[in-house]
Amino acid sequence: MPLVQSAGGVCWKKRKIIENTPLRISLILAGVIYIALALSSVDVNWVRVQEGMGRGLAFLGSFLQPDFFSRSAEIFEGILESITMTVVATAVGIILSIPVGVGAAGNIAPFPVYFICRSIITVSRTFPEVIIAIFFVAMFGFGALAGMLTLTFATIGFLAKLLADDIEDIDPVQTEAIRSTGAGFFQILTWSVQPQVMPRLIGLSVYRLDINFRESAVIGIVGAGGIGATLNTSIDRYEYDTTAAILIIIIVIVMCAEYASGIIRKRLQ
Amino acid sequence: MLILENLIMKYGSGDLALNGVSLRFDKGEIVALIGPSGAGKSTLIRCVNRLVEPTSGSIDVNGKNIASLKGTELRRARRKIGMIFQEYALVERLTVMENILSGRLGYMGFWKSWFRKFSSGDVAKALNLLERVGLSEHFDKRADALSGGQRQRVGIARALLQEPDLLLVDEPTASLDPKTARQIMRLIKELCSERNLLAVINLHDVGLAKMFSDRIIGLRKGRVVFDDTPDELNDTILTEIYGEEDWSGSADKKKVSAQVREHKHMESMDYALAND
Amino acid sequence: MPLMKRNGAVCWVPRDSKKQLVIWFGWFIGIMLVFLCWQSISAKTMWVFAADAPEQLRLMLMRMFPPKLEYMDKLWKPLWDTLNIATLGTLLGVIIAVPVASAAALNTTPSKRLVRPLAMVILVSSRSVNSLIWAILLVTIVGPGILAGIIAIALRSIGFVGKLLYEAIEEIDKTQVEAVTATGAAPAQVFSYGIVPQIMPAFAGISLYRWDINIRESTILGYVGAGGIGLNLSSSLSILAWSQVSLILIAVLITVVASEWISARVRSRLI
């Protein structure tokens, strides 16, 4: 009760989010105990940290004077490879995600198809790109092909899920109207569903292009090509000025891509 | 020409939306369906073109039992049944012309419709209808740029471009102001009599029903409780259909404004929810 | 004009020919670009190896099944670490993200010309760099272990939570803030009475959502030495113990799906 009668008159207390007092207290207690346990599991080797601090400062310092040039050939090649992987993976991913997304929309797909498509989406979304990349590298060998396939696979899960949710969200009356003209399934898809979801699909594809580029910087660590390999090598060699240069390039490209995709999405509205 | 026999529609919950409806309709009739919300008006209309599946009973259009059709046959039957919707149900991101031409989808193959290859005959008919409903200059606008009355005119033109044998009309005026509502009803009536079309119109507005129909059918709890000319509709019968109320006031007071679907996407959150 | 006369009959096309031409040109450029990119990937690929992929997959799957269930005994501790990395990392990230977000939002920033751009740079940098890259860097700085993982997750979360949070702050209802200001409240009071109640649901939702993404991300941090189940993945892979790998994958799948379910349930309760 927010109002309490006390000796000096009526008291008011802020309403609690969880009204049930024992439940609230035990939840707070559980939280505190968990955090204490979790913190105690962090064992820190302070000597090691102290040693590393020097390297950390060196790294931060190298951001002030990044070295774009001594490894410029490798950086350029890595970035180019990342971009090619990103472009192909996004394009193929979009094409493949459309049938999966349509199949995963509960309002237009029959149950068996729905179930299969939702399973594909779950598997693709659950595993981080790096794990998927490990497997594609094992199958197809080191290089950009494995990276491209990884990004394609991840794109399918991402786009198909959002497309399916979007289709489930469309105005059913517009679909009903097209159905009542005697249109077949594919005509209903292209004349009623597509116009309704197209702007978001384009927006999400552009957004995914951006994510794929960022991810391409990571999967190189496990041998799937792209700028990630160059980045990893530079860290291994303690060449922090090159690392800083690569990170700055990635940040700038991501910023540009984000800005461009913002403009595209705004124009679609 | 349209014969419904013992039509029953049961929801999954076991509630009866239609409880044995049997009706006969003839060519050229304008029939108003009235009744309180939940009486089954909308369900009845949607059963005729099988947007809703009836549980049992038969629907006979020109000697063909719609209730037993499947796949292509059902689509063939649907294209001869025009439908006009309460909230216009235009595909909002398509142009007026595309919306109207979508009335021909049942008559053409998928690829032709994908590339928008409509025959010149279809285009000429669409243009005629556009002129008839008074929207000639708007043909290249997007549907969501039109006003409510204009949108409903597009909806009417789309249904008529199907060259239907009968017209199903679901609450055509529920989202319109009283003046536009009358204009739309008059337009539907004129177009039907020009083509000698049967129109079954769902109306919640008894005044409009009396004004524009040849025959009124009252539904209550999925049963037909009244079926006669508008003149026979009196306060006792209205009470039987709707329950106790003072019927002397203007009918327009009962007007319910339709909810407009609001597409309010929290864009950024949406994207984030994706995955990041 | 989308309407034209051809051989006396009226024709209609959805777009006029000039616009249509531009669209076709756009498609042409796009397809060419994808094709060129594909060619460059293909040129660098050893197709002899790649052709072997189905056989590799078959062998891999054969070695993975059945999963070595006894190995589970050694997975509980890494799973517990993974959970801690994600949770503590999210907490730390959120704590840092709040001031950064309020410095970045147009309507709460102390200075539009100095503080806001700085906050924006922090947010973008944090978002652009994947937690795994942060982890590699941190492992060389603070040494291997879950501390590196926690900081990596926190650094990546700042950008995500901060960006969504500052957008939420910018979208708040101004009149409520004005009303609180009109009572003569001090800026801090305006913040806690006028702004906080409005963004609280969004804030909780964003944080929970990030937590469940972080669970997924923290499963691989161990691959570069930053603690958690990824460490076992990397060591199992290096000794080609595929039946352990498959068990780890199953553990990851269950953990991630469960955390997603929990976060979705709690979020829907909040709204």
Give your account of this protein's structure.
The complex is a heterotrimer of chains A (269), B (276) and C (271). In chain A, helix 3 packs parallel to helix 6 and helix 3 packs across helix 9. Chain A contains ten helices and two strands, in the order ββαααααααααα. Chain A has 269 residues and is mostly helical. Chain A has a two-stranded antiparallel sheet with strand order 1-2. Chain A has two domains: 38 residues, no CATH class; 199 residues, Orthogonal Bundle (MetI-like fold), CATH 1.10.3720. In chain A, 48% of the residues are buried. The mean pLDDT of chain A is 87. Chain B is an alpha/beta fold and 276 residues long. Chain B is built from ten helices and ten strands. In chain B, strands 6-7-8-3-9-10 form a six-stranded mixed β-sheet, with helices on both faces. In chain B, helix 7 links the parallel strand 7 and strand 8. The longest helix of chain B has 18 residues. Chain B is globular and about 55 Å long. The C terminus of chain B is likely disordered. Helix content of chain C is 76%, strand content 3%. The relative contact order of chain C is 0.12. In chain C, helix 4 runs parallel beside helix 7 and helix 6 packs across helix 7. Chain C has a two-stranded antiparallel sheet. Chain C has 271 residues and is mainly α. Classes of the chains: A mainly alpha (269), B alpha/beta (276), C mainly alpha (271). At the A-C interface, helix 1, helix 2, helix 3, helix 4 and helix 5 of A face helix 1, helix 3, helix 4, helix 5 and helix 6 of C.
